Recover the amino acids of this structure.
């Protein structure tokens, strides 16, 4: 390899490294493949996790829920785009905004006495056993973050993982959107 070719390669590597550093991405993560995470605000999270309680002349008035919310089956839950590195349980820098909104929501007066399950999900890349362990570790990472940064009592938050066994229907099994965290309000203890 000539000196000129070596210099060109070194310059190309330096430019690539600069793109990763300026974007906040870790080496090995895709930039073009992954859309920027959409942050769901704390008020939408609170509405999504608050069960419908208003009754007027026999009609139940359901709370308005936002994108990512799912109240099918009567449960109060929401899917959040909390980003992790590929094949990692380390919370990414891109996750900070969503974690702040989630922490604010779970600390709010409307949800202060509720208990929650944090459910980790993975895409379908890798073995089922590996994905199961990874999803559990991701759910635990979110749980730990909320306890440490927002002072949420540990007894209010459980963590579990589903691996790739509960995929979102509108996305390919290996899509980045499958790597998500679901927050589920647990029924009150009787």
């Amino acid at each position: 390899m000539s000196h000129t070719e070596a210099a060109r390669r070194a310059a190309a590597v330096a430019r690539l490294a600069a793109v990763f550093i300026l974007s906040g991405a870790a080496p090995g993560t895709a930039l073009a493949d992954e859309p920027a995470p959409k942050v769901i605000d704390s008020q939408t999270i609170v509405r999504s996790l608050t069960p419908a309680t208003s009754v007027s002349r026999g009609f139940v008035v359901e709370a308005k829920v936002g994108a990512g919310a799912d109240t099918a089956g009567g449960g109060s839950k929401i899917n959040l785009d909390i980003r992790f590195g590929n094949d990692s349980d380390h919370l990414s820098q891109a996750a900070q905004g969503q974690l702040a909104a989630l922490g604010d929501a779970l600390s709010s007066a409307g949800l202060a006495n509720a208990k929650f399950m944090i459910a980790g999900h993975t895409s379908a890349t890798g073995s089922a056993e590996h994905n199961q362990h990874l999803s559990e570790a991701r759910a635990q990472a979110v749980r730990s973050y909320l306890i440490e940064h927002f002072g949420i009592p540990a007894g209010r938050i459980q963590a579990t993982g589903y691996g790739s066994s509960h995929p979102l229907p509108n996305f390919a099994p290996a899509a980045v959107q499958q790597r998500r965290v679901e927050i589920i309000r647990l029924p009150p203890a009787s």
